[in-house]
Amino acid sequence: AEAAARPAVQSRILLALFHVRQGAHARAIQQYRAALALEPGNAELWHQRALAESRLLDFDAAIVSLEKGLEQKPAEELSLVMRQLLGRLLARSGRTPEALAIWQQLMAGRPDDASLREDVLDLQLAEGLLDAAVENATALMNQAPDAYRKTMRRIQLADVLDRAGRTDAALLEWEQCLADSGAGSWVEKEVLARFERTFRRDDNLTGLRAQLDALLQRQPQRQGLQRARVRLLAE
């Protein structure tokens, strides 16, 4: 009633947010469209409209809304959020090269922003862009500020490599994590669990035994490796 009596931008936004909470995204888009007719230079309105359009799976319309919003030169944080969403929607629309270009621009503009790279990595994995995810995970590992975080990011890189079907490369990265960790540490347990998972996925117990034998030759002091090998032999 307020929006009908006094159709100002704020009343339109409030009604649109109500529709969003109700799951009535088409009605929300109508209100955002009416608000934008009154205030076309409002980048946040374009962003909210794009979100509603994306929830209706109208990705092409959402992309157009985001592009128009970005033309309004929004503040840095809003621009970052909008460009991340734009990359995701481009990927979902099958416009993979454009999506990758958006994310590369984001990371090039903030090369030391590890949290941004991690967000982009999550997006790349969610959209199945595995080669780009491997490249990004490698950069994250190389930027690690200390040995502990480098090991954590190496484990992450190996997981991404394994997911991308590059199992041999993943095994090498996990082995390096093992070499960098203390005997009996939780990192050792995590890495051994990943070795087992990888070989058991294909019921390749012979390959697992060969892997454990090779690791023991290089790191014979690890009782965790010895126990894992004994359990496998008993099985």
Notes on the protein architecture:
- The protein is mostly helical.
- 79% of the residues lie in helices and 0% in strands.
- The protein has helices spanning 2-5, 9-22, 25-38, 43-55, 59-70, 76-92, 96-109, 114-126, 130-142, 147-163, 167-180, 186-200, 205-218, 223-234.
CA radius of gyration is 24 Å
Shape category:
elongated
Q: Could you name the ranges where pLDDT drops below 50 across 5 or more consecutive residues?
A: none
Label the structural class: mainly alpha
Distance between the termini: 72 Å
Largest sheet: none
Order of helices and strands: HHHHHHHHHHHHHH
Query: Helix proportion of residues, in percent?
Result: over 70%
How much strand content do the residues show?
Answer: under 5%
* Overall mean confidence score, pLDDT: 89
SS field, number of helical segments: 14
Number of strands: 0
Descriptive terms for the model:
235 residues, mainly alpha, 14 helices
Topology overview:
Elements: H1 2-5, H2 9-22, H3 25-38, H4 43-55, H5 59-70, H6 76-92, H7 96-109, H8 114-126, H9 130-142, H10 147-163, H11 167-180, H12 186-200, H13 205-218, H14 223-234
Helix pairs in contact: 2-3, 3-4, 4-5, 5-6, 6-7, 8-9, 9-10, 10-11, 11-12, 12-13, 13-14
How would you briefly describe this protein structure?
The protein is mostly helical and about 240 residues long. The chain has 14 helices and no strands. The model has no long low-confidence stretch (mean pLDDT about 90).
